[in-house]
Amino acid sequence: MALRALVTRKALTGGLGLGSQTIRAMQTFSHSLPDLPYDYGALEPVISAEIMKLHHQKHHQTYVTNFNKALEQLIDVMDKGDAPTIVRLQSAIKFNGGGHINHSIFWKNLAPVREGGGDPPKGSLGLAIDTHFGSLESLIVKMNAEGAALQGSGWVWLGLDREFNRLLVETTENQDPLVTKGANLVPLLGIDVWEHAYYLQYKNVKPDYLKSIWHVMNWKYASEVYETECP
Ligand SMILES: [Fe+2]
Predict the structure, then answer these.
(1) What residues make up the domain containing 117?
(2) Model pTM?
(3) Is 56 annotated as a binding residue?
(4) Beta strands 154-161; 166-173: pairing state
(5) Which CATH number is 118's domain given?
(6) Which pLDDT tens digit goes with each residue over 38-84?
(7) Which residues lie near ion ligand 1 (Cβ < 5 Å)?
């Protein structure tokens, strides 16, 4: 049953017992797979079309599907006041919702070379990187080292701590979004270091994937986010 239909039916019958504001908020919970801003083969030879297609159509789609499913279940069990199930659903919401959030950022973090992928950051973000890390090269070395050292699956991030206006490198496990490491953290760049992001092409050599991905990094996107947060 579509989430909107479920909410409408329950709202009409008064079954949810929730305020109209809460119900309106829940109606926005149906998420969908965003289109890639480029073709599947546009990042070759750095990332193959086969990986991009599988990663987007299968992996990301699965996170979206399971996120929506968990949210529908949540509304249903909230209606019943089923506290154990409400608590049990939190891990599915975190994992699949995180997967959806992270991948939605990741696609925008990348760009074909002909569209500026790999061009170094300019303006205020470029200056902030030099201030915080010494140079862009030092930042890349740090992110690659932390990404390579991450055990199991996860992400390595360049983030902004907007409370202290400082840049940081952080890793998260599984599909945890950066915000799980601090409410003030805003992701500027995230690199997916799950095996599904590189194994078909780079096999078990994760450091080669990390070294290559900078050739299609979309610093323009990171700069726009940074300038919005730090005008
Ligand atoms: Fe992924």
Answers:
(1) 45-230
(2) 0.87
(3) no
(4) antiparallel
(5) 3.55.40.20
(6) 999 999 999 999 999 999 999 999 999 999 999 999 998 988 899 99
(7) 192, 194, 197
